[in-house]
Each structure stands twice: as C-alpha cells, then as structure tokens.
Write a structure and sequence with these properties.
2% helix, 4-stranded mixed β-sheet, 37% strand, elongated, 4-stranded antiparallel β-sheet, single chain, mainly beta
Length: 169
C-alpha cells in the first residue's frame, strides 16, 4: 500500500522532477515496468498565500451565509500543500490538515457548516464554533509546517469605512 522513497540530495525550490521506477514488484508478483512519476517540489514562500476575505460578523445576513469564515488565496504559480500549516487567530491556533491548494485557488476556512454553504468552493471545516473571529479585529496569521511566517494581518473594524457595512453582513 505504501512505498517510501529517500533522496540523498535536497530539491531545488520550484524544481520539476521525475521519479523513474522500473521492474518493481508487489507482494502478489505483479511487475510495474517503466513508470514515470512527475512532480514539482515547492515550499510556500512569504505572501504566496494571502487572506482575501474575512467574514467576522455575518449578521445580518446579506447574500452570504450566517457563518464566520476566512478566505485564503494562493497567489503563487504552484500548488501549496497546507498539511501541518498553522492558522493563528488572536491566541488560538489550528493545525491545517492535508489540502492541496492550487495556484490561483481560494479556500474557505470555517466551522462544520462550511461544506454545506460553500458547495462549489474549496472549504475546510476547521473551527469548532461559529464565533472564532472577533468583530472588532485581531491578528490573523498563517505559518508553514516549519514555523515560517507565510502571511498575516491585523484587521480592524475601521477598515469597513462605512457605518452601514460595519454593522455586519
């Protein structure tokens, strides 16, 4: 079910590689001949991912679900594997599961209702409650699995610059 491959040398950032496998046999005696597996080795860099939307105050509902969420955008040219990335909102942290976010793709992070409300959008049900983001603002950051800062911001209610919009929705 699994094969581990170890490499003697590190990979170049954003390098394209091919693993060639020839004459490998499984436990049943089936032989694979001339398999070529292409892959790109890419580790996210600072600001490859950005927070493109913060829904901190979904009430009253205005053409969007009554759901707090963050939207992350992959602005790099490569897929980013989010496995073990850390999302931090204020003093709370979450470890992201395996999720391959393609170049130019968006990801919604919310509670267990995210897949219900965002059927045609990549989503992760990560939050345990519906109130993880304060309405007045706070620091939001994401770090890679090595602890490197990838993106972050400190949002503030004044960003709305409109008293009507600052009431939510």
């Amino acid at each position: 079910n699994e094969m581990k491959v170890f490499f003697y040398h590190g990979f170049e950032p954003a390098g394209k590689y091919t693993v060639k496998i020839d004459s490998i046999m499984d436990m049943e005696g089936n032989r694979a001949v001339n398999l070529n597996l292409d892959f790109i080795w890419y580790e996210a860099r600072i600001y490859d991912l950005i927070f493109s939307e913060i829904m901190a105050d979904p009430q009253p509902e205005v053409n969007l679900p009554d759901l707090e969420y963050l939207e992350i955008f992959n602005r790099s040219e490569y897929p980013v594997d989010l496995d073990s990335f850390v999302l931090q909102i204020g003093i709370k942290t979450w470890i992201l599961p395996y999720f391959l976010l393609g170049p130019g793709d968006y990801l919604i992070i919310a509670n267990q209702d995210a897949p219900i409300h965002f059927k045609d959008i990549n989503s992760l049900a990560l939050f345990s409650s519906s109130a993880e983001i304060t309405n007045n603002g706070q620091e939001i950051s994401v770090y890679d699995k090595k602890g490197n800062f990838i993106s972050g911001l400190k949002f503030d209610k004044s960003w709305y610059s409109d008293s009507y919009k600052s009431e939510g929705g």
